[in-house]
């Protein structure tokens, strides 16, 4: 957390880089805002600073209707931190508390409920229930404004356990009833397309999202994803059903169109869409460090705001990582497409060329490995990997301990350091991964006039901590 005077200077400058990093509560109005709120700058003595929207709500402030502080990018801190707080915040964002309660969250983290609550209150000013409740309010607002679902159905879809709790929370956060929120959206003429949820996903500038699409396009597996012009479209396997997401980068936001079999999956779908495009990154911090490096400086200047492409499903990425071992990107894409066609779940309503959901680990684990179109050694590796994912002895969700997950991946026969660290970077959103033995890195480093020996590359990459994943994308981009 920045000191309060630095925070207030950010508020005076309406600095959007700090949106989602902290929130301001204005005692003279009783509202809380993002730092870039276009309203008049409040007097210093009337301002309090909070780590999360939930903390501001707990202090008695309601959300500003002008700057919509609940729609800010998430704090990049939670992606960087590998401790229990960072892991908990990633899981809460994915909707784990709504689905499994605080007990489920604590179980995944390996701590008691009391420890998790105490640690979160100390670090971010709110416990897991309060954080989840704040997130439910935002989910409910999106559903109220973008769908025609009945109000009572929206309450339960957003994760509330009762209509009374739903009504009380919406009034507390927005100073409006659910029906009044919906009425304001209708008066504003917000467009609704039947069967879809349309929303804007905020991010911090600068953002090289074209670079993310260029990375994803040649790797797009037929049947589950495609890049169509400026739109990335793919299927989602979510806790309550399947869905399709369409993501189109715009100036300052990503236009997201979601088609969900069950609206209860909205929170998880949004979190996964944000991860695949790395929308919660702090580009200023990354570019400041990497841009000062003599080797990377010109690359950062040419493509500021480089993002690390993530994934919507850690299990899927691990499977695709094994499929891609020792073959080209095109060949791996072809093999993955065959698995999708043979074992993927057909969607009830295909969109474009997206017709299936990627086969789950349990489905692939039940398949005779000799039928997989690959060498026998890789067949055994894929079967062992999917078996461990299916019985949860290996987990690749946002809340896992990254070091432990990497150790467990390396324990799978046939998975080496390259695959394990690639999965760690993209599936677990670790911002500090480098692949010094990668053949592409070797060629790129030589092209940059830098040492290409893996040991020398690894030593050089130490200068790029804690943003080595972003450095890797810059290096790969030169190929």
Automatic annotation (TrEMBL):
<keyword id="KW-0378">Hydrolase</keyword>
<feature type="domain" description="HTH araC/xylS-type">
    <location>
        <begin position="86"/>
        <end position="184"/>
    </location>
</feature>
<dbReference type="Pfam" id="PF12833">
    <property type="entry name" value="HTH_18"/>
</dbReference>
<dbReference type="GO" id="GO:0005737">
    <property type="term" value="C:cytoplasm"/>
</dbReference>
<dbReference type="InterPro" id="IPR023170">
    <property type="entry name" value="HhH_base_excis_C"/>
</dbReference>
<keyword id="KW-0010">Activator</keyword>
<dbReference type="GO" id="GO:0008725">
    <property type="term" value="F:DNA-3-methyladenine glycosylase activity"/>
</dbReference>
<dbReference type="InterPro" id="IPR035451">
    <property type="entry name" value="Ada-like_dom_sf"/>
</dbReference>
<dbReference type="Pfam" id="PF02805">
    <property type="entry name" value="Ada_Zn_binding"/>
</dbReference>
<dbReference type="InterPro" id="IPR004026">
    <property type="entry name" value="Ada_DNA_repair_Zn-bd"/>
</dbReference>
<dbReference type="InterPro" id="IPR009057">
    <property type="entry name" value="Homeodomain-like_sf"/>
</dbReference>
<dbReference type="GO" id="GO:0008168">
    <property type="term" value="F:methyltransferase activity"/>
</dbReference>
<keyword id="KW-0808">Transferase</keyword>
<dbReference type="GO" id="GO:0003700">
    <property type="term" value="F:DNA-binding transcription factor activity"/>
</dbReference>
<dbReference type="Pfam" id="PF06029">
    <property type="entry name" value="AlkA_N"/>
</dbReference>
<keyword id="KW-0238">DNA-binding</keyword>
<keyword id="KW-0227">DNA damage</keyword>
<dbReference type="GO" id="GO:0043916">
    <property type="term" value="F:DNA-7-methylguanine glycosylase activity"/>
</dbReference>
<protein>
    <recommendedName>
        <fullName>DNA-3-methyladenine glycosylase II</fullName>
        <ecNumber>3.2.2.21</ecNumber>
    </recommendedName>
</protein>
<dbReference type="InterPro" id="IPR010316">
    <property type="entry name" value="AlkA_N"/>
</dbReference>
<dbReference type="GO" id="GO:0032259">
    <property type="term" value="P:methylation"/>
</dbReference>
<keyword id="KW-0326">Glycosidase</keyword>
<dbReference type="GO" id="GO:0008270">
    <property type="term" value="F:zinc ion binding"/>
</dbReference>
<keyword id="KW-0804">Transcription</keyword>
<dbReference type="InterPro" id="IPR018060">
    <property type="entry name" value="HTH_AraC"/>
</dbReference>
<dbReference type="InterPro" id="IPR003265">
    <property type="entry name" value="HhH-GPD_domain"/>
</dbReference>
<keyword id="KW-0479">Metal-binding</keyword>
<dbReference type="InterPro" id="IPR051912">
    <property type="entry name" value="Alkylbase_DNA_Glycosylase/TA"/>
</dbReference>
<dbReference type="InterPro" id="IPR018062">
    <property type="entry name" value="HTH_AraC-typ_CS"/>
</dbReference>
<dbReference type="GO" id="GO:0032131">
    <property type="term" value="F:alkylated DNA binding"/>
</dbReference>
<dbReference type="GO" id="GO:0006285">
    <property type="term" value="P:base-excision repair, AP site formation"/>
</dbReference>
<keyword id="KW-0805">Transcription regulation</keyword>
<keyword id="KW-0234">DNA repair</keyword>
<dbReference type="GO" id="GO:0006307">
    <property type="term" value="P:DNA alkylation repair"/>
</dbReference>
<dbReference type="InterPro" id="IPR037046">
    <property type="entry name" value="AlkA_N_sf"/>
</dbReference>
<dbReference type="GO" id="GO:0043565">
    <property type="term" value="F:sequence-specific DNA binding"/>
</dbReference>
<keyword id="KW-0862">Zinc</keyword>
<dbReference type="InterPro" id="IPR011257">
    <property type="entry name" value="DNA_glycosylase"/>
</dbReference>
<dbReference type="GO" id="GO:0032993">
    <property type="term" value="C:protein-DNA complex"/>
</dbReference>
<keyword id="KW-0489">Methyltransferase</keyword>
